[in-house]
Every structure is written in structure tokens, then in C-alpha cells.
Design goal:
Elements: E1 9-18, E2 27-38, E3 43-52, E4 64-65, E5 70-73, E6 80-85, E7 91-95, E8 101-105, E9 110-112, E10 119-127, E11 130-138
Parallel strand pairs: 4-11
Antiparallel strand pairs: 1-2, 2-3, 5-6, 6-9, 7-8, 7-10, 10-11
Length: about 140
């Protein structure tokens, strides 16, 4: 407000769209319309935002677990992560605590992780159709 008088209005409308057959899974789409008017400042704006949600599978029975043949050394690690294993590694993927992929490497037993910030990460090691998920601490 300006000197006790309102200077404008803001109206926000949200619509959530659900899958009719599985509404408990949460929304699949959301639209947001925001309209702001402030005549004193000659503002009359509308913003529309559309969001699509994708449900991702966190686990899959079809993917076999890699036996305890893979070890991360050292752990905690500073700059270079070494994989000790008795199997052929075909891919290594590193995820941060928020689940974002931060590093991907193929066919390497020594992986440079120096660009990563200190923290806890999950390292997925793939060999054929088998995957091992290991916790790594970056110093």
C-alpha cells in the first residue's frame, strides 16, 4: 500500500490435473496463472506457468544387484575414487544427496571426483545388467 491506499492487485490461479485411474499418485500436470495490476506504476502483467510431473521408478526388480565384488577405495575420498572389483565395470554414475546425477564415467576404475563438493554421494556401478549402489563420502 502507498499512504494507506492499495496500489494494485495480484491474483493467482492454480489448476492441478490428476490421472483419473490413480489420483493417489499425485498430480501429473499443474498450470499457474498470475495476474498483477498496479495502475500507479502502469503495470498490468500476466504470467502463465505450466509444469508436467513424471513419476520415476526408484527400484526395479528386473535389474539384478551386483554382488559384493565392488569396493570404493578410499572412502572417504579426496580427489580420485578407485574401484576395486572382480568384475568388468561398464559404467559409473554418481548422484548427489538430492538425487541429481553429478558425474558419469564409462569403463574406468579411477574416477576424478575433485570437481565435486564435500558431501555424501551415491555411486552406481554397472556391470552388464547388474548394478551396485554404494555410499561415497567426498572430503
Amino acid at each position: 500500500s502507498y499512504m494507506g491506499a492499495p496500489i494494485g492487485t495480484l491474483t493467482q490461479t492454480l489448476y492441478y490435473y490428476y490421472n483419473f485411474f490413480s489420483p493417489a499418485a499425485g498430480p501429473v500436470f499443474r498450470s499457474t496463472s498470475t495476474h498483477i495490476t498496479m495502475p500507479l506504476y502502469n503495470v498490468d502483467e500476466t504470467q502463465n506457468l505450466y509444469e508436467s510431473y513424471t513419476n520415476s521408478t526408484l527400484g526395479n526388480q528386473d535389474i539384478a544387484a551386483l554382488p559384493n565384488a565392488v569396493t570404493l577405495v578410499p572412502n572417504p575420498v579426496k580427489d580420485v575414487l578407485h574401484l576395486e572389483n572382480g568384475t568388468d565395470v561398464t559404467a559409473v554414475t554418481v548422484f548427489d544427496a538430492a538425487g541429481r546425477m553429478v558425474l558419469q564415467s564409462a569403463l574406468a576404475n579411477d574416477i576424478d571426483i575433485s570437481p565435486l563438493s564435500a558431501g555424501v554421494y551415491v555411486v552406481n556401478v554397472k556391470s552388464g545388467n547388474k548394478i551396485a549402489s554404494l555410499k561415497m563420502i567426498k572430503q
